[in-house]
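PROTOCOL LOG
Step 1. Enter all chains and additional molecules of the complex.
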Amino acid sequence: MEKLHFDTDYMRGCHPEVMRRLIETNMEQTAGYGNDPYTAHACELIREACGVPEAKVFLMVGGTQTNATVIDGVLGHHEGVVCAETGHINVHEAGAVEASGHKVLTLPSHDGKILPSELEEYFSSFYADDTYEHMVYPGMVYISYPTEFGTLYSLPELKEIKEICRKYNAPLFLDGARLGYGLAAEPGVTLKEIASICDVFYIGGTKVGALFGEAVVIPQGKLISHVTTLVKQHGALLAKGRLLGVQFETLMTDGLYQRISRQAIDTAMALKKGFISKGYRPFIDSPTNQQFFELPNDLIRKLQEKCTFELWGPPGKDTSKVRFVTDWATSHQDVSMLLSLL
Amino acid sequence: MEKLHFDTDYMRGCHPEVMRRLIETNMEQTAGYGNDPYTAHACELIREACGVPEAKVFLMVGGTQTNATVIDGVLGHHEGVVCAETGHINVHEAGAVEASGHKVLTLPSHDGKILPSELEEYFSSFYADDTYEHMVYPGMVYISYPTEFGTLYSLPELKEIKEICRKYNAPLFLDGARLGYGLAAEPGVTLKEIASICDVFYIGGTKVGALFGEAVVIPQGKLISHVTTLVKQHGALLAKGRLLGVQFETLMTDGLYQRISRQAIDTAMALKKGFISKGYRPFIDSPTNQQFFELPNDLIRKLQEKCTFELWGPPGKDTSKVRFVTDWATSHQDVSMLLSLL
Amino acid sequence: MEKLHFDTDYMRGCHPEVMRRLIETNMEQTAGYGNDPYTAHACELIREACGVPEAKVFLMVGGTQTNATVIDGVLGHHEGVVCAETGHINVHEAGAVEASGHKVLTLPSHDGKILPSELEEYFSSFYADDTYEHMVYPGMVYISYPTEFGTLYSLPELKEIKEICRKYNAPLFLDGARLGYGLAAEPGVTLKEIASICDVFYIGGTKVGALFGEAVVIPQGKLISHVTTLVKQHGALLAKGRLLGVQFETLMTDGLYQRISRQAIDTAMALKKGFISKGYRPFIDSPTNQQFFELPNDLIRKLQEKCTFELWGPPGKDTSKVRFVTDWATSHQDVSMLLSLL
Amino acid sequence: MEKLHFDTDYMRGCHPEVMRRLIETNMEQTAGYGNDPYTAHACELIREACGVPEAKVFLMVGGTQTNATVIDGVLGHHEGVVCAETGHINVHEAGAVEASGHKVLTLPSHDGKILPSELEEYFSSFYADDTYEHMVYPGMVYISYPTEFGTLYSLPELKEIKEICRKYNAPLFLDGARLGYGLAAEPGVTLKEIASICDVFYIGGTKVGALFGEAVVIPQGKLISHVTTLVKQHGALLAKGRLLGVQFETLMTDGLYQRISRQAIDTAMALKKGFISKGYRPFIDSPTNQQFFELPNDLIRKLQEKCTFELWGPPGKDTSKVRFVTDWATSHQDVSMLLSLL
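Step 2. Run joint prediction.
Step 3. Record the structure below.
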């Protein structure tokens, strides 16, 4: 029997409906670089879904390139980007932000989140320091939603962070690589709320039903100038841009994005409940598609015979931390089979 | 009736056989970032096809990111890349090379090609200049094959360029965004000859039957260190790397890449012959899938009613330069229809 | 006897009056980084001399760092700097502009100058190109005054260039590493004219009487934001900034800068006249402190016994091109001795 | 009466002996860019003083540019530099390292120092992490000596750090902006010990008797290639390089550098002892020329009437942290006057 896979949420291709549309449109000839009707329509659907008719929307291939491009587009030469020390841009993007010349300024991570109070303190003590002209200015704030630990900011937290950003004139950027899973979780915030709070964010496709693709949304429309040139300079302008357009058009039609995100959350909650009911405790309380447990090493070895998943950090003496990830295609049967191994 | 499109070679999706394999493998779960069996197999097939068993091969999404990443990986801090002033990296990549901190050093373009004699002169006068330590060293040489003007270097020309590169210790990088069309042209060079001459090159997929994808080959295997980190830093590491693996595996199986490239060349030659037989002269003599003619503006307007193609430079008073491009899916019927409009 | 030196204009220390002030102020304790009264006064004197009371003025150590810092401060991510292909930033600054991520876009050099007509053509054809979003935008224009070949733009030429810059929204940057020698030449333009035309320029000290130092002037005051941080980031913020302040204060007092510049021009003109009267022809007609002659190799060898100067390019078979440079300390006796060797 | 100044150690010009030599050599004409006999001699004296005859030595103007240039020269594209979170490169250099494309990787600061144990842990857990290819490699280690808090590593600590660096193939870089004051402190390490341990370090001149200048020493001579071009690219190649040569030649002659450093330490120790004898406690126990006390705000206000010094961080309610800095020219009378105010 084939093993079960709970390693991560980018192991499969795309949702069958997305694939169907790629097949249907495959032999059409359209203009390149996103100047095609599918991309235009996808962007229009995104603006509608976000409730921001003036938004600038553009589509990119992957998360790291999106982060590096957006950050490079927003920051001035004297500015860096503030994020949790566990932020993806600080840890797992091979220094892409710095390679564009910008510093990542870190705050403590609280299960992946920054605290509004610590953000406020960072800004206020920066500007209180007489030597701040010799330092990198905090020019924007990066948060991930969900975070790298599956956690979510509440709506009040987001609003508080935004208020601080506004006070210090630092745009708020939300990395939504797994945005669908955040939107589908309980209690969540809506896409429109995200769009009303953030200065720029992206709707992740790669991990949520697309072969690849991230849709960047700038609600007020003016934050980044000369987007095409910037994206091209970052090596991120897809020649056959309509591949992104077709995928996001499909995901944004008839609520597909939300529907398939819900599937990941439902199965993740079943998984979480199952582990807890067997007496295992999550070491992070995640409401999204990533679930974190500390398990006996014996059990881990036993599970590994039938299932793959990630160790989270170095193995411990008796127990180790592990992560289980569901995605849009995880079935309740998959979860039941996993739980039956406990 | 639908218009004919001869604008460029990245207007369609992918070859049906490539699509078939993407569909077949769509719901499989594999490791990410190219650590999957499809990628491994694709790289192995590429090594075989190139006759370089020790080669390092890695797969990237698009041309600009490939150029910027390879050049950044090869050059030292004191070095720039030499190319024709019409080279894609110098003109149409939005300064991606410079954004990574490296200067592009230009030579005159001869229908897209550099002359070995001018390259030799560049190197020798550089090192003869007493002030060269204040200048950017010519640290590698970039050529495109075919060039941006559809032209090809002959085998002796390639060897002569390589000899100069070796003399001055500057790796030779061949941009093969349209490599298939160069290999299929007459008189051509073979993939193995390319691999035996170049220090690094790539096999273009985006314009030759793939949805997207470029396969970088480093025949001697050691030119660039820490490739995964470098590629990630450039925002170019595809999460679902197997999408590239599946595509190149398919293109490299049963000679598909060569076969579909041949189709583009056959139709391009038919197109060229047809125009010439009607009395129009190419202003560049291209043996590949891009064909360049200077046509009366009246005729251009007439053609534009049924057909799209690119003006090549600003329109002239009575005549203008235009480009027609075929690809792996262009049919002889398409060409006949175009020619019937003359 | 000590040899005569006409190699270049940065072989000596500083003008004795500058040294006197450095000695007088040596043991004073002032705040660092330019926050001292000497720097404030120097900047004020410069604003007055330039007739631009609202100007932002800041002092830097050397030319390359000034060019790289100013260009980095002015350009957006999508922009490059236009200059003559012989421009110092394009040839002899080791790629410092590119190391900051910006492309240098070149125009033909006419004895070091760009032609307004070719500049206009560059801009207009750039924006006429349908693919310009894939290209580096011409975001500012760099000229040197005097040029690297000792030549000068006339006032009408400067105004014409500025008009084009204004039309295309590209700030005009004048590299004044040898500005004093340009101002002292005939027919010249005045410092106030320079300041009324340029968007940013610098008054060179290193080659004109200072130990080191370049004074950047932004007449309208707003072109570059966060200057201190930018300069610091470029490693160019001198800890003991008052050293620059003291030097420029001295040079800007009682017309010292103009007076010592005049000395270099007078001696250069005497030198030029002397060579011409002996039948040697300048291959560039320079009105400034650099003089260019093509001389018989025999004569060159003879001169080299008593004098040092630079070969300008590779030696020729019978004759070679050479450059003689005077500076603020060159005496008429030095020139007479040189001419007596002819 | 003139106020006393204990703000920092770069408030004055240079030691009179250094000035004397600058005056003496002022009107000499020498080759530029460090190709002069003074620079050659200074480098030779430095090699001798360090006991490393094969060392590569080069002279730069200031600390930030030295740090950024050295780090850029050492690191590969996939690497960052490890330092204490309080390291000057991480805090007060306006992101110069990142502007060159490299990430600063931080360790906890222990009064400015990193712990060998935490460094070992950083390296070992980096390479133990399965995802390290997605992360910035720790490619070199930066320490300051003395640190930004006046503290010193002991010889065993330096050796232990070096051992870890060797194990993980990461060159050790010592920022010696205040090196003289570290060498003169008790218990200290010698210049030869520094040179035998570090892969690259610099001897600070700006804060220790020179007008400006830092001498970079690469004991094994090969760590950084193409130094002149690298330095030029960083805008850091001084045209009149002999100014650096003359200064370091003077400082390295007859033990001047050590002698004047000793003066700063003697006065700092007198100052420290005086404060302690009056019942004030240092909050950092520094053996060098920076002394740190927490003082009642009343006393601070009283001192400020006659004396300038820096608040160290934000003022407290009743007491605040302050820093007093001595330098090569501080007299015992200065210290007595300060202490008399307590």
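Step 4. Note key features.
The longest strand of chain B covers residues 137-144.
Chain B touches chain C at residues 77-78, 80, 91-95, 98-104, 125, 128, 130-131, 133-136, 311, 314 (CB under 8 Å).
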